[in-house]
Each structure stands twice: as structure tokens, then as C-alpha cells.
Design a protein that fits this description.
This protein is of the alpha+beta class. The protein is 35% helix and 21% strand. The protein contains 11 helices and 21 strands. It starts with 17 loop residues before the first strand and ends with a helix.
Length: 407
């Protein structure tokens, strides 16, 4: 594998050594190797590839049959295998740019702006120049590499440079070393972690189905009963968050989540008081001022910067959520809250609005239950992942943990 030609060009691998946490390093670190594990240069077991953006001025280069991964695919699908993308290119665009059609199972790591997000290709795709990509050989499981990069996300960001925008440059990418066991052990570890991710995926699909049913039912209601167009501003009671916090206070687990306007939607967790007390019976909406992400919370929480919490005024919050969904779209990087307030929305009379919220409140409980289980499953995965990949925990012991957890 070490003899394969790479297609990134540019400078050679750096000679610097920058250790990560446990399974990733720029250069070969002077760290102990657990029994059965070996520090291996990543380019010895995977082919490194770059990406590119075809000219935006050439319409004939875009909207073709070839999926093209941009940075939003990475931030919105971190740790997932993706099968479709929001943008696509044509054969002409592929042939007249430096991007390449890469095979399924290629692992893609975002290296500019939003550094450290990783996805895996489910079908052949191309990527933008925002990614460094690896086509794994037989000695390295693509899923195993993805888990390493997920677990070492903070390390990847440390390997990056820049004052305004952080970037992981190719000299560092070419010098990456990974701590890996033989392929059968890799596959066993992937199976353990994959069982948790599979359950998370099932719950996520359940949440999506519940959301779709809510929206479909609301549209059916509006089409079936008399409705009125009213100013959004007249339907909203804005809430002032009870607690200010610093980034240093944020935890990976805590008493209540901090939701934000990002694609992922979760900034971290806090302990103590200062939460907004929402529930399935009294949900609270929140809106991303820059991103226009509209979400509904049915648990205790608070919000991050540029995220506006509010409830319905004279209308149940659940009904208002359905009415506002998709009303304000992201236009450019600016504030959108005031634009949303000045729009009009179609709502049923108060009796129908209250009845709708009562009939579909159970879906919020389904969503809440699935999200809570996903939080526990993700926490279990995130505890097992570094232990398995550092050799501190063996597959059999991890399987016992999953069995006790009912996975």
C-alpha cells in the first residue's frame, strides 16, 4: 500500500511529531503500544486523496449524477455513512476540475473552517477541497478509521493552523499515524460500536417519522378547516434565558443540554440551575437567528448564542411549531429573527389549535424518549470508543457491557 501514488501534490509530510489523545498522531509518537496494537503511518494502509470545487460560473458543471460532498454534509452527518448530497456535479465538471470520483467506503475528514468532521461515502462521490480523503486498503477498516477520527476530533483541531480560519494542511495529513490492531480485531471493535450506532439510527428515524407525521397532520388540518392569516409577531411570547455561561462551563454530560443554532444542535451540557423548564405538556420553541433552525424542546434545557427561545401566545406551542416550520429560510449570514416576526402565517381557530396540540402531544413524548435513549447510547459509545481503540478494553468485555445495557 505504501507504494501507491497519492493525488494531493504539494509539500511532503512534516517531520514534526504531535501526539493526539490515544490513537492518532502527527508523526510516530513515543507512546507505548498495547499488546496487539501498532503505530502505523496512515498512508501505508490508506491512499490519501484531495477534492476540488468545479467552476461555479459553468452551469454545465453542476446538477449532474455525481454526488459532491460539501462542508455542510460533514457538519450535518458527523460519524455517518452518507448516500446522497445536497449538491451534485456532471461528468464535465468532474473532468474539468481537480476533484476526483472516489469509491464507496472512502473516509472524508473536513480540514478547513469547520475542522474535524468525518463522514464515509456510501456510494462513489467527489468532494470539495475542504476535505482530506482516505481510501483504505485491506489492512484498515474504513469504519475503524472513521471511529478513530471521531474520537480524536479535538486532536485533529490541534493539528490545524491559522488565526482567522483553522486549516489542517497536507503536510500534517500526510504524516498522520494511527494506532491499530490486526484487521479481525478492528472488525470486532467496529461491530461493538456499530451496534450502538445502529440503535441510534433507528431512534433517529423514529424521531424523523414523528416530525413528518406532525407536519403532515397540520397541513391536513389547515386544508380541512377555516383558517386565518396572522402576523407571526402576534403569536410569540419571547423567553429570556435564565443563565449565562462560558465555554469553560460546558460539559459532555450534565443535568441539562445547551441547544444551539448549529446543524448538530447541541453545544454541550450544564449542571445546576438556570434551565428553561419545558416538557411534552409545555414545550418551548427555539430559533437560530443566523441559521433559521427551528426546533421544539420538551425537556429542561437552555440555549447558546444567537438562539431565541419562545412559546406560543394565544396558541399552543406545538401548533405554532407546525405553523412556523419552513416559514423562514436562511438567506445569507445575517440575523433572521426580525424577518420571521414580520411574516404572516396561516393558523386554525383557537379550538382547533388546542385540539391539534392535545391529539398530537403523544408524538412529543415519543420524540423525547427516543432522544433521551440516544443520549445514553451515544454516551456509552463515547466511553467505550477510546478504551477499545487504546487497547484498554477488549471486544469481549465491551460485548458484556452492551449485553447488560440491552443492546
Amino acid at each position: 500500500m505504501s507504494e501507491r501514488k497519492t493525488n494531493t501534490g504539494g509539500r511532503e509530510a512534516t517531520l514534526s511529531v504531535i501526539p493526539g489523545k490515544f490513537a492518532l498522531s502527527v508523526g510516530k509518537p513515543r507512546l507505548p503500544e498495547p499488546a496487539g496494537f501498532t503505530w502505523t503511518k496512515l498512508t501505508d494502509v490508506a491512499r490519501i486523496e484531495s477534492g476540488h470545487t468545479p467552476s461555479r460560473t459553468k452551469e454545465e458543471y453542476w446538477n449532474g449524477p455525481i454526488p459532491w460532498i460539501g462542508i455542510r454534509e460533514a457538519t450535518g452527518n458527523h460519524g455517518k455513512t452518507i448516500y446522497e448530497t445536497s449538491q451534485s456535479i456532471t461528468e464535465l465538471g468532474l473532468n474539468n476540475s481537480s476533484t476526483r470520483l472516489l469509491p464507496a467506503e472512502t473516509v472524508c475528514l473536513s480540514r478547513t473552517a469547520s475542522v474535524g468532521y468525518v463522514v464515509k461515502m456510501g456510494v462513489p462521490m467527489a468532494t470539495s477541497q475542504d476535505f482530506v480523503n482516505w481510501v483504505c486498503g485491506p489492512q484498515l477498516s474504513s469504519s475503524y478509521l472513521m471511529y478513530i477520527l471521531m474520537a480524536e476530533q479535538d486532536s485533529v483541531r490541534r493539528f490545524s493552523h491559522g488565526t482567522t480560519h483553522q486549516t489542517m494542511y497536507y503536510p500534517e495529513a500526510k504524516a498522520l499515524n494511527v494506532l491499530i490492531p490486526p484487521r479481525p480485531e478492528q472488525d470486532g471493535i467496529v461491530e461493538v460500536l456499530g451496534a450502538l450506532d445502529d440503535k441510534i439510527a433507528v431512534n433517529t428515524k423514529m424521531v424523523q417519522s414523528a416530525e413528518e407525521l406532525l407536519q403532515c397532520s397540520y397541513r391536513g388540518l389547515i386544508n380541512a378547516v377555516p383558517s386565518t392569516r396572522v402576523l407571526v409577531e402576534s403569536l410569540i411570547h419571547r423567553i429570556t434565558p435564565k443563565r449565562k455561561f462560558s465555554k469553560e462551563e460546558l460539559l459532555t454530560q450534565g443535568d441539562f443540554p445547551v441547544f444551539d443554532q448549529s446543524e448538530v444542535g447541541l453545544l454541550g451540557y450544564l449542571n445546576g440551575e438556570g434551565f428553561l423548564d419545558s416538557s411534552a405538556e409545555r414545550p418551548i420553541l427555539y430559533f437560530g437567528d443566523h441559521t433559521c433552525k427551528l426546533r421544539l424542546a420538551s425537556e429542561r434545557f437552555t440555549v447558546g448564542p444567537n438562539t431565541v427561545p419562545f412559546t406560543g401566545s394565544g396558541i399552543p406551542s406545538l401548533t405554532l411549531y407546525c405553523a412556523l416550520n419552513g416559514l423562514q429560510n436562511h438567506e445569507e449570514y445575517k440575523r433572521h429573527w426580525q424577518l420571521l416576526l414580520k411574516k404572516e402565517v396561516e393558523i386554525p381557530d383557537s379550538v382547533q389549535a388546542t385540539d391539534f396540540a392535545s391529539r398530537y402531544r403523544h408524538l412529543l413524548k415519543v420524540i423525547q424518549s427516543a432522544n433521551r435513549e440516544n443520549t445514553l447510547l451515544a454516551a456509552t459509545r463515547d466511553v467505550l470508543l477510546p478504551q477499545l481503540m487504546s487497547g484498554k478494553l477488549r471486544v469481549k468485555d465491551a460485548e458484556n457491557v452492551l449485553e447488560r445495557a440491552g443492546v
